[in-house]
Amino acid sequence: MTRIYIILLAIFFCSNVRSQQAYFVDGYHGGIYGHYPVSWKTQFIVDQLSMHPDWRICLEIEPETWDTVRVQTPEAYQRFKNVVAGKQVEFTNPAYAQPYCYNISGESIIRQFQYGIAKINKHFPKVDFVTYSVEEPCFTSCLPQILKLFGFKYAVLKCPNTCWGGYTAAYGGELVNWIGSDGTSILTVPRYACEELEQKSTWQTTAWGNSDTYLKACRDAGIKHPIGMCFQDAGWKNGPWIGSGKNTKNSSIYMRWRDYIKNVSIGKTDDNWYFSQEDMHVNLMWGSQVLQKIAQEVRVSENKIVMAEKMSVMAYLMNGYSCARADVDEAWRTLMLAQHHDSWIVPYNRLNKQGTWADAIKRWTDQTNVIADKITELSMQSFDKGNGVVDKQQKYIRVYNTLGSERTEIVNVLLPYEFVDMDWEVYDWRKKKVGCSVEREGKQIRLLFEAKVPPFGYSTYCIKRKGLGKKIVSRSVKVNDNEWTVENDMYKIIFDLSKGGIIKSLVAKKEGNKEFAKQSGEYALGELRGYFYEEDKFHSSTETPARMIILQDNEYGKKVRIEGEIASHPFTQTVTLLQGDKCIDFNLTIDWKKNVGIGEYKEKSWRNNRRAYCDDRFKLSVLFPVDLCSPRIYKNAPFDVCESKLDNTFFNTWDQIKHNIILHWVDLAEQEGDYALALLSDHTTSYSHGQDYPLGLTVQYSGPGLWGPDYKITGPLTIKYAIIPHRGKWDKASIATSSDRWNEPLLYSYHSSAKLESMSFVDLQDTGYQVSAAYLQDGKIVLRLFNTEGDQTQRKITFGMPLSSVEEIDLNGNSIERKKIEIHTGKTEMVISMPRFGIKTFVLK
Asked: Fewer CB within 10 Å, N or C, the chain?
């Protein structure tokens, strides 16, 4: 009887699975940089589509691939061009280099789409972009807004077959409304709540092959039209992934995403998913030296090219200077390639005959930097020809601000050899004397003075010879043999040299003399700590005494260098305080004597679910135990700021990944009180935090890791970070603006003669907006604003010149609205509103 029951149950189960029509999305993923065998692949795709007329594919192919295909296999290229105009193919990810998105700036994501769409449409003019779908976790919380502004109608949050670096949270049923950071909604196929991570796998979900188990789970969850997915690696010589014709697995029907969502699925839903950045469960080799350098190189280039474009706009408005558009395009191209997801997850893989991904990223970002620096320099040189009078007793410094808000900051200017042994006075554009400090530095002069620079503009300063140089008097205080006090108008810091130079006390004078350093507990502020698994023990910088050297000590700038050791390896940490500056800057270098293992244990197999490189408590970190009551983490993401809901950031298996990523900054803020500490990083990496564990910035991992390579220490470690003790929530404290100032420092140029003047071109004062981008295109100025700290009320934007028109456009360049403007005393005013984390793009004429 039992045997008959089992047979009947099996028949019932199979018939029910088959009675529910299943669908499948197939396709290819890769490209000229990420696997695309040019010699045969295009012809293979065309042939397979011809052999299987019912087959449908989605393509996620790097757009630059088609340049090579057209040259090397022109006949296959032409046949493919005819095929993509039909109903069998859909392009689902036009991004130029398929970036992960969550690890780069929002502006970079926009450029990835802009350049990628332009490249694909240059080859295939009839191709449109309706659905965003990818095979790796290339998602971030702001994507609905960006996708909609590019004209996309749908999105897919599945990545079933390549989850090595992570996956999205499981949520919902057949369709959801993915609500982005600004409130934009896009109809989306999620990774179903019933779409589990595949057993005995560390890279797949159950949706990768339309198995009986997966389809049953979908049926039990009430999903009427279940669909699986796999974008095959373009290097694989496979046709239809789950068979074809009568042999297609579970009689599945191949679909393009656009056809499935529009014509097959339920078509709409009331399920609104307010997707948090913490719904991105992603994990790379954070702390490994190779990834650290990649992230730093990308960050530097992101900052440089955006600033260069802004400087060229200022120069254009001043005197009509226009940089070569081809140069700007090439600078973005090489940066975008460096943002390719493969560069972050397989940096040791060989890319071509010239070396690995890591080698290529160094070349690409160097190229971006050379072009960006050239544009910035030429923009500065073009501002004016001076005032016609050269006086050996005086020179001029022009200071530039690429942000949309006014800045009053200490400017650090290195003057030429001719200034040695002279003392100087500084005067602003109103001929008002400005305080300054002059110090000799080798064969050059270091001049520090407080500059006040208007929003998105510049100010000019005159420096006049005064006489003999003055002696700089030290103001730092030695308390005893072990403690030093460094103090300015903002902070009073006590360093304990007996414990490796940790910060024993950090008093914020402007915040009610609040003591931020925790005075008790296991950890110390500024401590370096990590698990050296070859020794089977934790090491801390507090184990060895340090010494301090005073590098700069005057009213405007304080700079000290702490020299200590971590596990016998020497380190130096330079700490800088500037007058009026909320940021306390740190520059850390560890001069590793040799490669050592740092992490929870020595990794044995990269296929294991349990992983040695996940739990950041075991990596070398710099720790920030602060005296805050029940704090919670806020962290920025591309065009977003996320309030963390995590109790802690700790995990050690692939199937339990938590979002622990610092893009530009995290803020540790009291929930009941009013105090907080922000941490800024010069590169995308991970952070750690828990109820009984302080905020920590990941500094170093060393050992075997993802895909097998040994992620070794190959040289000195150098990172920069900053902390901002403050009051109020991150938006009230303008932490995003402070981060922008840190990433886009004031620029300056030196002149023998110049006009004393100050000018603002775009004033966003008190709006809470940021200038995401400003650049020249086809003789027009494109200005993109991002509402990071403001509300949705109407705000006034002021342009420092008369404009004939301002037009709001989408990201494809299509007109949305012609804005009403008013001109008063040579300036143009415009009133706009947008939601928090919203972006708007304008064309200025």
From this structure: N
